[in-house]
TrEMBL record:
Domain of life: Eukaryota
UniProt xrefs under InterPro entries: TPR-like_helical_dom_sf, TTC27/Emw1
UniProt name for this protein: Tetratricopeptide repeat protein 27-like protein
Record lineage: Eukaryota, Metazoa, Ecdysozoa, Arthropoda, Chelicerata
Keywords, ordered alphabetically: Repeat, TPR repeat
Family of this protein: Belongs to the TTC27 family.
Length: 241
């Protein structure tokens, strides 16, 4: 407890390196306390100890059955994709990528996951550029859309409508990347046809719910998304026809 309290002091002082080392000592004294592991995970992100983030996440799942944080996962995916600089000269990107895919697989097995999670999962699988992974990616995209439209009465709130349309736009871009990476076979055509049907359903719902957004501050963004989705979907369909 003393080590953990000291770590909190260092965190308040914004001395993350000392907080990180102090939390390591705290874990030696109390390996079963999930709150310390959670603090360790977040401080590890701040100090760039990305392998330790993954280890802490596994431990949190051990202790709590599940743990979700899309923002942290997005950072880890950016590290895997080389979009965030890693200062350690001994950092092994290949092993990190393998660990990250294992973590995503475990999270997917124990928790209800968001649309963002499934898109991130698809992204790291696609990084392998393995044709055998195509079905896994398509499954992630399917689950991403299911999660997007799962929120009750999303069509009655302008902000929710904008979010759903944004997710749909992102998904179409992912399908386009899948076509470019894996080519077009029967499964791909089936998946894209399903995407077409589900996207058109969302567009129709958004159009029928115009009274909830036409006079809102989201109006311009939603109109732009409606046009953009139609254009992107038509381009996608042309590529698989």
């Amino acid at each position: 407890e003393a080590w953990n309290n000291l770590a909190k002091v260092y965190i308040k002082l914004n001395d993350k390196p000392r907080a990180w080392k102090t939390l390591q000592e705290a874990l030696k004294c109390n390996y079963e306390e999930w709150r310390i592991w959670e603090n360790y995970l977040f401080v590890s992100i701040d100090v760039g100890a990305f392998d330790d983030v993954i280890s802490a996440w596994h431990r949190l799942i051990d202790l709590k059955s599940k743990f979700n944080d899309d923002d942290v996962l997005e950072i880890l995916v950016k590290v895997d994709c080389g979009e965030i600089e890693v200062k350690s000269e001994t950092f092994n990107f290949q092993k990190f990528g393998e660990k990250l895919r294992t973590l995503f697989g475990r999270i997917a097995a124990v928790a209800m996951c968001s649309s963002t999670f499934w898109k991130l999962y698809a992204k790291i699988i696609m990084r392998k550029k393995n044709n055998e992974d195509c079905d896994k990616v398509l499954n992630c995209l399917k689950k991403s859309h299911q999660s997007t439209v799962a929120k009750a009465n999303w069509e009655k709130n302008a902000t929710d409508i904008e979010q759903v349309l944004t997710d749909c736009c992102d998904l179409i871009e992912y399908y386009q990347k899948c076509v470019e990476l894996y080519g077009v076979d029967t499964n791909m055509k089936t998946a894209i046809n399903s995407c077409r049907l589900s996207t058109n359903s969302v567009l129709k719902t958004a159009d029928m719910s115009m009274q909830y957004w036409e006079n809102s501050e989201n109006n311009e963004k939603i109109n732009g998304l409606l046009t953009g989705i139609n254009d992107k979907l038509n381009n996608l369909l042309l590529n698989v026809s």
